[in-house]
Amino acid sequence: MKTTISQLKNHIDETVTIGAWLSNKRSSGKIAFLQLRDGTGFVQGVVVKAEVEESLWTTAKGMTQETSMYVTGKVQSDERSQTGVELVVTDITVLHEAVDYPITPKEHGTEFLMDHRHLWLRSKRQHAIMKVRNEIIHSMYEFFHNNEFIKVDPPILTGSSAEGTTTLFHTKYFDEDAYLSQSGQLYMEAAAMALGKVFSFGPTFRAEKSKTRRHLIEFWMIEPEMAFVEHEESLQIQEQFVSHVVQSVLERCQLELSILGRDVSKLEKVKAPFPRISYDDAITLLKEKGFDDIEWGEDFGAPHETAIAESYEQPVFITNYPKEIKAFYMKPHPERDDVVLCADLIAPEGYGEIIGGSQRIDDLDLMKARYEEHGLTDDAYRWYLELRQYGSVPHSGFGLGLERTVAWITGAEHVRETIPFPRLLNRLYP
Fold first, then answer.
1. Per-residue pLDDT tens over the stretch 94-113
2. What are the GO MF terms of this UniProt record (predicted)?
3. How many whole angstroms separate alpha carbon 83 and alpha carbon 259?
4. 28-39 in b/e burial notation, b at 16+ Cβ within 10 A?
5. pTM score, two decimals?
6. Which residue range is the domain that position 322 belongs to?
């Protein structure tokens, strides 16, 4: 019977066949231990010299790292194994012998591993991170499906910018200027006016010349927009959403989190509601923590966000930022014209902002005033203005950066490990 490594636990004491690659091996002289992987997981294959034909023993002893094969054997329980089973091998059919595989069990530098990212993905740690990433995506879709959101796909090529063109990649769209999208938000607002509660999930691009462990040039965003939803309700949805994602990973990725050495006790505390601190109080807190140079009206950098997060065991919302440092479309606070109804969600343990969201301006005259303040042309943004002209309603939305979220949940040091093929300031290969 042909099966996969992830399903071996369902075939105890049965003889099965799997397709696999050899990730590593060791031998005691009379027994060869083959570390096998097939994409669904890892398992140890045991070849006992006295119990197999000499040709099979010779094959097992001579196989090189990343050789591909079909392996037949009997599945046995093994409490010492992370997967709970091992495979007593009775037959091997080599498909392709790998020669001089460049990534060996020894230590390699980061740049070497990044140059070989197409192969580095095969390692146990990278496999675990990608499995967690997959579960995060699955649980996000699950949350939105269960809460009656509709998926909408905004364009990647746009004629305008959501938040200014300074960090956009410019291209020519025949005889017009165009940009790679840095956010699908504006289009998602249009979709929300048609479909109520919507979300998008896709790649976004920021031409930001940053080399920090939190930044990628190309990354994936999930962006919900909700008609008839005001700021407070949006915050509640955000914390329920993040709680659902984290608890789903804890439930379904125990093995992967164990492989990664993640302290799950910290993730177990991630349950709604989340603490909140206003921008005003955050400034006060930072000054108390020794950030004497931060002044009201300045945006927070990574050290500031980390310092604020250290005061909490859960993700924390920083609310009501100054209007001047936020996007033109954010709704002013009803009691203060100098701040807006917005919030950034800061992850614990120094992983920074994972969500940015706000209530959007729904008043036509106020949006026209914002257009004038920001020098937005009627031609490029006319359609966006018309959303306030024809049946405007209160609405809110947010964007979650997938890779930062994966980094936080897995405990990865750098976001470059959280996406299959990272695009960095100095890297477009492979």
1. 999 999 999 998 899 999 99
2. asparagine-tRNA ligase activity; ATP binding; catalytic activity, acting on a protein; nucleic acid binding; transferase activity
3. 11
4. eeeebebbbbbe
5. 0.96
6. 118-417
